[in-house]
Each structure stands twice: as structure tokens, then as C-alpha cells.
């Protein structure tokens, strides 16, 4: 995964432009997408560190994009921040079931969004370390059994 790559998916071109400029100035490589179908392909290939995903979009909404991403092994477990003008209570239960780590209500303060992005990255780094620790522990235990210790 590109640790500095962010994919922003939203049907509002002005927001895409603002986020591209703002996130780029903070050192992120930003890929903007205005269509949910196209976003699935781009996310699959770009393997971003974070996806900022709008909920309400034409053709395919953010929940459907999320479902498609989770059905593919190469995109399962992505760090995702849902962004929307819809209040979080309309989708909070769904978000808890999916891999959405945060919700950001529109309009938003850019500094708050950056803080959430840093939290998401840190949380995923911790999860990656936990997976690695578990894997190494299993390997160690298997090795110790093989040599009868």
C-alpha cells in the first residue's frame, strides 16, 4: 500500500479540487475520482493508505462501493473515512459492520480531517504490527513443537 496515497471519491468536483490541493500540500499523493464504479478500479490498483469516500453519489453510492471493495481480497481492510452531508446516525450501524474507521460530516474543517487521517493511518499501522506479531508467534510455536521444546 502506498503509505502516502489517498484516494478521494466524491461527485462534487469543487470538493475534489480543494482536497487535491490541500492534501497535496501536506505531502500526500492524491488521486481524485468522481464516479463510484471508476473508484473501485482505481482503489484496487493504487492500493492507497486511506480512502475518503462520499456516501451519496449518482449511479453507485458509497455503501455499494464499500461493499464491492470488501468483496475483493486485494482491497479488503482498507482504511476508509466516509464523508457525507448525511448525519452519521443514518448509516452508523452499517459503518460499524464495515471497515469504516471514521465518519466526517460535510462541510468539514480541513485540520479535523487531517487529524482523522493520521488516526486512521496509526490505527492501521498498529493492526499491521499485531498481524505480524501473531504470524511470528505462530511460526515460533510451530518451530518449537518441531524441535520438541
Radius of gyration from the CA trace?
18 Å
- Major sheet size, sense and barrel closure: 5 strands, parallel
User: Which spans have pLDDT < 50 for at least 5 consecutive residues?
Assistant: none
The total domain count is 1
Distance between the termini: 38 Å
Give the structural class.
alpha/beta
What percentage of the residues does DSSP assign to strands (E)? 15-25%
CATH superfamily caption: Response regulator
Which series of helices and strands comes N to C?
EHEHEHEHEH
Strand order of the largest sheet: 2-1-3-4-5
How does CATH name the architecture? 3-Layer(aba) Sandwich
Secondary structure tally, helices: 5
Mean pLDDT: 77
Structure, explained:
The protein has 149 residues and is α/β, with parallel strands linked by helices. The protein has one domain: 3-Layer(aba) Sandwich (Rossmann fold), CATH 3.40.50.2300. The chain has 5 helices and 5 strands. The protein has helices spanning 13-25, 36-46, 62-70, 92-97, 110-146, and strands spanning 2-9, 29-33, 48-54, 80-84, 100-105. Helix 1 links the parallel strand 1 (2-9) and strand 2 (29-33). Helix 2 runs parallel beside helix 3. The longest helix has 37 residues, at 110-146. It is globular and about 65 Å long. The protein starts with a strand and ends with a helix.
